[in-house]
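To close the section, here is one more complete example, presented without commentary so you can practise reading it yourself. The ligand is manganese (II) ion.
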Amino acid sequence: MSQGRLEELRNQLDEVNLELLGLLSKRARIAQELGAEKEKQGVPKFDPVREKEMLEKLVASNEGPFEHETVRHLFKQIFQATLTLQQVDHKKHLLVSRKKKQEDTLISLGDVTIGGGSPIMIAGPCSVESYEQVRTVAAALKEAGITVMRGGAFKPRTSPYDFQGLGIEGLKILKEVAAEFGLKTISEIVDPAHIELACDYIDVIQIGARNMQNFELLKAAGDVKTPILLKRGLAATLDEFVHAAEYIVSRGNTQVMLIERGIRTYEKATRNTLDISAVPILKQETHLPVLVDVTHSTGRKDILAPCAKAALAAGADGVMVEVHPDPATALSDAAQQLNIPQFHDFYAEVKKSGLM
Ligand code: PEP
Ligand code: MN
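Output:
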């Protein structure tokens, strides 16, 4: 073959490549339009029956030189790339996404603002056990300048034989003690039927890790105006976490905060593995406040301060930590709760870093 002929064929290939690219782009734009229409109508983007039909039509028209299998393979790749494109478009349209709303969402609890650039320390017992227990912690927190107290009244325990929490009675204790000390409160709700009722007792409703994908609970949380603190699931990806938050926001409750609380890995040195990288990723991808629960993520008291500092350095809007007047006798999470002097030391060390 002469050098001239080679050159000519190469030029032809280059031209066909450009034509193919033009056609692929055209196809992608049509598919994007189709995807947007499907989104409007609420029908799924991926339609396996339609994909099979398209492949069959193509194979029926295939006159070679490619084998039918090769044609199928090539077009499946094209279909997959188009679907990925539609999924990226879909993500940009999530209500919680930073692309949808640039400004940070701020959560106002009276005079307290979460997400406004000055990080918050949230502390309190794992469980509400008694009026006296909560009152003792509240007095210490107030003295330390803490404004938001946590305390579980409905406890989702691994064993049904473990302390399940005081229920509504616990919420009443929180309300009474919070009123006395002028504190705001956070408590977990596990039953969609309790969401409305909880709004009368607490300032923030926590949805726990075990319930991150309890979609009926998320929907109920989306139907009220009370701020929601959504914990990351035990083995949830960030994508699943973000979509769980979307469930709440899509129902009308825009007051949502995310909290990283550690995920399951093979590591045994800590109770869970604190995923610090979740903080900047969630801050970048969503406009919601992002907090870090240092207690449940680590499950050990000796590394709480460095982990809290790491969280704040990574951009967290706040830290949550468990405090109990007498951790040894606590009805839940006895091993990981700080006593009051330990909390004071922890808080002082975190503040000393200048990160809060
Ligand atoms: C809690 O914060 O009380 C709790 C049970 O944590 P998690 O849902 O993260 O396990
Ligand atoms: Mn706990």
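Once you have examined the tokens, check your reading against these statements. The first helix runs from residue 3 to 41. The first strand starts at residue 107 and ends at 109.
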